[in-house]
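Q: Hi! New to this. If I give you a protein sequence and the SMILES for NAP, can you show me the bound structure?
A: Yes, paste them in.
Q: Okay, here:
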Amino acid sequence: MQTTILGRTNLCVSRMGIGAGGPSRLGKRTGKSESECVDILRQAFDAGVNLVDTSDTYSTESIIGQAIQGRDRSSIVISTKKSTRRKEVTPKTIEQNLNHSLQCLGTDYIDIYSLHGVVPQDYDYLVSEVYATLQKAREQGKIRFIGLTEMFNEDMTHITLRQGLEDDLWDVVMVGFNILNQTARQAVLQNAIQHNVGVQVMFALRKALSHPNDLQAFVAHLIQKGEIDPADVDRQNPLGFLDASTVSLADAAYRFCRDEPGVHVVLSGTGNPEHLAANVASFDRPPLPEADVQRLRHIFRNVASTTGQSMIEDSGR
Ligand SMILES: NC(=O)c1ccc[n+]([C@@H]2O[C@H](COP(=O)([O-])OP(=O)(O)OC[C@H]3O[C@@H](n4cnc5c(N)ncnc54)[C@H](OP(=O)(O)O)[C@@H]3O)[C@@H](O)[C@H]2O)c1
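A: Thanks. Here is the predicted structure of the protein with NAP bound:
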């Protein structure tokens, strides 16, 4: 597994991170038992993945706590978050949530502690009212680095992260980026490189890039909205031009994100051991051919109204 340095944190991280949220939550949402979820994490760690991302709302912190037992704590980078959307967030709730997360994770420090899903309208309040509490937690040694994550499905043009990078208060950001919606390239990644901020990518796959039929439907929808030029794409097989060495849509999706300048870690969420093994293999493959990357950039250059998760959600925009 390839590794890199996560920007200003200096943490050495695997290019693939395991996401313990999303549609699978390690399998918790897809009918797997708790011990199967623990096994997914162990499989990932054994394959060289050393970063795991969770949140106080995913109900997977205790699963991570079990999976890291018996391992050298310093070999795993734990990223967890405090939800902010439609939640009361005060210095007191931050302190309480942080202590609860530490307890569930069975650790005395968290490597990356982020404000989770921050919408643009809450950003100023959170900086003025609770940022100091995060700094205090860092001084106490409960967290090592402070992060910010966006609410991609409500903020597809990255207003929160653009502001966050300008303020330069955050060691790590988590951004929505994938083959379909590449707006983060201009809006976030360039600035993150300048400020040496660590970047985790979420939504690399989701529904649109999990299955060819889903991709077809998303592309048809985006053509209808005028965001994809029909002359650029084969509607029946939109990514059929990819080099024969690309083994699946998921393979293309993860490698496309991995090799985007400015991206350090691409989160992959799964509760399926076969998918996990396939995804690990993708991260070990060389870059997609440059001609394919350029064509993917070209086809989707004007797309800004989807996360790749749900066309129903996207139709309102
Ligand atoms: N605002 C925020 O801060 C925020 C929001 C969302 C997510 N996140 C973080 O980002 C992480 C990554 O997002 P995500 O979980 O949605 O990951 P993702 O990798 O974009 O998509 C995961 C989905 O793809 C499927 N999948 C995975 N590998 C596959 C493969 N090889 N072939 C076909 N399908 C495959 C999974 O189902 P199976 O279980 O069947 O494999 C799951 O439904 C989350 O886990 C969470 O930690 C953060």
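A: Residues 59 and 306 are 27 Å apart (CA to CA). Let me know if you'd like me to explain how to read the tokens.
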